[in-house]
Write a structure and sequence with these properties.
The structure holds two protein chains of two kinds.
Chain A (H helix, E strand, L loop, with lengths): L2 E12 L2 E12 L3 E5 L6 H8 L7 E6 L8 H7 E4 L11 H9 L8 H7 L15 H13 L5 E5 L7 H16 L3 E6 L2 H7 L2 E6 L2 E6 L1 H7 L4 E6 L6 H5 L4 E7 L2 E6 L3 H11 L8 E3 L3 H9 L6
Parallel strand pairs in A: 3-7, 3-8, 5-6, 6-7
Antiparallel strand pairs in A: 1-2, 1-4, 8-9, 10-12, 10-13, 11-12
Chain B lengths: L3 H13 L2 H22 L12 H32 L1 H6 L5 H31 L10 H22 L3 H18 L11 H7 L3 H15 L4 H21 L4
Helix pairs in contact in B: 1-5, 2-3, 2-5, 3-5, 3-6, 3-7, 3-9, 5-6, 6-9, 6-10, 9-10
The chains are: A alpha/beta, B mainly alpha.
Amino acid sequence: MSNVIEVHNLQKSYGQEVAVGGVSFSVQKGEIFSVVGPNGAGKSTIIETIIGLRKADGGQISVLGLDPQQDARELGNRIGTQLQQAALPDRMKVWEALDLYASFYERTIPWEPLLEQWGLGDKRNAQFGNLSGGQKQRLFICLALLNDPEIVFLDELTTGLDPQSRRATWELVTAIRDQGKTVVVISHYMDEVEALADRVAIIDHGQLIALDTPANLINELHGETKVHFTSSNGFELNLLSAVDGVTSVSQDNNHITVSGHGSLLARVAAVLAQQNVAPADLRVEHPSLEDVFLKLTGKTIVN
Amino acid sequence: MKGFTKLTYTELKLQIREPIAVFFTLAFPVMLLVLFGAIFGNEADETLSGYGRIDLSVPGYIGMIIGTIGMLGIPVTLANYRDLGILRRLRATPVQSGTVLWSHVVTQVVIAFVGIVLLFVVGSAFYDLRAPDGNAMVIPAIVIGAFSFFAIGFVLAGVMPTARTAQVVGMAIFYPMLFLSGAAMPRFIMPEIVQNISQLLPLTHVVILIEDLWLHGTWNLTSLAVVVTMFVVGLIVSRYTFRWE
């Protein structure tokens, strides 16, 4: 697969403060590539340098074979961006925004179907200031797709959305990739990245600390699966400790947690059934990207 | 200049949807004209070299429109666009910075001209306003005056940290200047020392330039030089002070 973005030893400081300290990675054509990290880790700086909004202090960047600074206009015509802290004038109508932004590009696709697809069909005459947070966000995604871009950059695209809209947005983003476009998603939500991304770059303090598929990152963690349930008719915990793959069993009042590897849930359930214990809340918890981040940095991502 | 026409047209529509801005640039000067017209009328007055009060006021009101847009309209709009991230979003498209800036200039020039035509129409219809003696030459004078003030407006927009400061500083500069420059009231009623101070204000020279052409059909070369210098300096400085975010 060919690389559409190549970043080599990217460096950027604001005064004394180092925002990005020598980051290298490449993004392959047709993947959803995610840059993830806590707020202030340098994610937005990396992306803004790649799309040419900021000038790097050092290192090389190539996007679609172009230099973001020198070939800014050609690049602008071939990529789409949804930025954090961006806005439209409050009194600008949805259709006016699309009509106006379409006039900036060499080539555009019709915007009416885009509006329908992103659920804004009935909002075309609404003013920007009267849209909800989610509607504004979706309008910005429509603007990012207007020029039929080869790469789409989405910065914190589900911030401020309710859980249902977030899932709907993930599906639409996956659909963008399935059209053959490359999607770069910046996020500080690990669940979002886990659900969406083909590959993940984890950034912390301006450094790249891991880069792989979500599944590989989680596997490399060798994290434990946990099975939780509650039971009031206290039975021998030792029976569970003896189960194949179990490493520890702990009890907190009626809440029992079994940790271990392999097909833990099935084995634990079998023992419980033998003992005629049938907890209604038996559930399994797998290691997640959140745990990967915790392991790599020693802290949780939301702070 | 791809996108220029649409950007300018959209910006005009947005300005018209902003009632407060429309009031101060378009309605306020006409209101003053009607108010003072009702009080003093526009009879030819020998003590005013044969002019009526309204004849003498209109060139100043034109200066008022230009000053309002340059000192308040442009800096507040642009600083607000910057604060909110509207300029940031524009910058992430292939549109060129010059296209964005010139669309604002043209939008404001159009609004200024609507305001001026409104003044002229109301003045002529109700108070038999004298047509400008310099005839068409008054138009380039207005354009030069507008461009010089708009260039200063762009400098202010770049220098002011936020839209709120732009508003406060703009008002602090503009309102004293409005009354001292002859835009709101004629300079000849002022004491000599105030008239001397008035000569130091940029708006005074815009008013003199328009006034002399309107009333006598002559170019005041000193004022022309001041206004042109303001334009050139403003244009150069604004290139360095302008910020997208």
